[in-house]
Amino acid sequence: MTMRMMGMALGNNVALIVVAGCSSVIQGMGPKNSYGYPALNIAFAAGPAAASGMWRAFKQRNKDVTVVVWAGDGGTADIGFASLSGAAERNENFIYVCVDNEAYMNSGGQRSGSTPHGAVTPTTPEGKKENKKELLFLMLDHHVPYAATASVGYPHDLMDKLRRAKTIEGFRYLQVLTPDPYGWLFDPSRTAEVGKLAVQTCYWPLLEVVNGRVQVSNESLHCLRKETRRPLRDFLSVQGRYKRLNDQDYKELESYVDYTWDRILKLMRT
Amino acid sequence: MMKVMSGNEAVALAVKLARVGVVGIYPITPQTTIIEELAEMRARGELSADIVRVESEHSAMAVTLGAAVSGVRSFTATSSQGLLYMHEMVWWTSGSRAPLVMVVATRAVGAPWNIWNENTDFMSERDSGWIMAFASTPQEALDLTLQAFRISEDPRVFLPVMVGMDGFILSHTKTNVFIPSQEDVDNFIPPRRQPYVIDPETKESMGNIFPPIYYMKLRQSIHEAITNSEEVIKEVGREYNKISPLGDYGTLNVSYKLDDADYAVVTMGAWSLDAMEAVDKLRENGLNVGLYRVRYIRPWSEKEIRENLGDKRAILVVDRATSLGRGGPLYLELKSTLNIPIKGVVTGLGGVSVGKRDFYSLISRFVEEARYSEVGGVEWYYPGEVKEVELGTPRTAH
């Protein structure tokens, strides 16, 4: 879904770098692919560095091409993080899209650094003990000119952000929450709905940070005040991965949401 | 033009002369002065290449690959742990059939830490699908690097090329180097050619999943490209000889006083020059020996090797690298090529200093043995006082 929205938002002059993940597989067999973009498929940790070489090559050839790295949350938060951090710090000129389904879904849904507290995965059968890694905040600490979050539940917001990212020069980071029916255990027909619930319950904040200025997206404005947030239970209860959640885990997740929004409010004030 | 320069300076100059577009750099001893020199050239406005100062060697190779597949000539350099750290991308690059060039200033591999020379890092990539050349002088480091760009971008090859040189011994030692003119190099290296270019206009993709049969065919095509590159390398070498008066690149490997020799010693890299001096001395003393220097590990020229060494009574192969548990890689390669008695020596690891006297004693002892018995096996040779090596680590051995 996210890929289709990107096609609509970014137009034709795009070159993709796809790191290991579902998207390496679903594009179909080589030498062509089903994306409509030229794609360099590459090893798990190599995306941001390969993009650093690619956009410079296009510059040397005087070609105006938007380079996009397409990676999952495992490729972003874990194995590819050094490469991502290096490229962000160097302010390399490309868009990095992290498709965040909160686990290593391509290899069967094992926990990643981006898996939330309490979620059951094949490698955390008793539920994950640690909180989700704060990728957006980490990217902001790299002084990148553009960083944003989106959800497949709100495609217009997602496309707006991609379009805006395209107009900015330098390193652009976009993290899209993409609920995975097989890993999160809900019916596939409810994917967009779960993507909306994540935002409505304020579990997943929709934000845009341009040159350090934080803008909370319309869909998330109600989260700024604790009283107007929809109960987190509405998001968790539709998913099978939280079946082991006890009261203490629930409180932990609630305080995670509070912490996230406190941090956003602090960023808005500075 | 002649100039006194180190191996690393010679390589940096070759990169400039080849009009490289993108260089991925990450520091590691003893390769570092290559990238420092390139950064300085760029700062002085002499180099048009875009320099990407990445955060690891894995990324250095990824940057270089990303630029190469997008249509631009690219280069990187590394050593030791750096080469091992980028190992995954080394394979991804050859599998992508991406023409590009990397120089490896060789160094021992840890643990324990050791910054001195040994060729095991370079040799450990011999299965990775690259063309692999190894220099014996700063002059050759420059020459082989320039030739590497043309070989790599030849449609009959379309593979990455790795040029090795002994760390410190070549990388940091200055000798007189002949530098071909920019005009000659421009004529020597044609505009970039490559099998495909990532471009929104053509929408070609690479690295996708293929059905098994195509994957295997791709692997075989790399194998064939390596074996067929032998003719390309000789052709490129002959062309290079025209722009460099000292050039001797009509063959892949180099023979020294082999024609009438009964016995031969086989080496690679800088210490071959010490071995040549030992051969001269041994000949003065009546021993009929010659030397064969391997310059290309891949392709491995069975033909040249058989022609030059096939009629010898026995050969001695001296490795500055190991395939632990099996001896030296050069020794193993020669064993699989020739059907004559071959003895292997592993020495010089981790910077252990081996000079012409050692070669003299190794070769003379070998000839003595070979005259009266069937030689074979692998000897670990220590110059000087080492008489015994304890099993277990030095700390726990009693």
Rg over C-alpha atoms of chain B, rounded to the nearest angstrom: 21 Å
Helix content of chain B: 25-40%
User: What fraction of residues of chain B sit in β-strands?
Assistant: 15-25%
Predict the CATH topology of the largest domain in chain B: Rossmann fold
How much helix, percentage-wise, in residues of chain A?
25-40%
Q: How many separate domains of chain A?
A: 1
Q: What report would you give on this structure?
A:
In chain A, helix 2 (22-26) links the parallel strand 1 (14-19) and strand 2. Chain A is built from 11 helices and 8 strands. Chain A has an 8-stranded mixed sheet with strand order 2-1-3-4-6-5-7-8, with helices on both faces. With 270 residues, chain A is of the alpha/beta class. Chain A has one domain (2-269): Thiamin diphosphate (ThDP)-binding fold, Pyr/PP domains (Rossmann fold, 3-Layer(aba) Sandwich), CATH 3.40.50. With 398 residues, chain B is an alpha/beta fold. Chain B has 2 domains: 2-243, Rossmann fold (3-Layer(aba) Sandwich), CATH 3.40.50.970; 254-380, Rossmann fold (3-Layer(aba) Sandwich). Chain B is built from 13 helices and 15 strands. The radius of gyration of chain B is 21 Å and the shape is globular. Classes of the chains: A alpha/beta (270), B alpha/beta (398). The A-B interface holds A 12-15, 17, 24-25, 27-33, 35-43, 45-54, 56-61, 63, 65, 82-83, 85-86, 89-90 and B 21-22, 24, 50, 52-56, 58-72, 74, 88-89, 92, 198-200, 202-211, 214. Chain A: Keywords: Oxidoreductase.
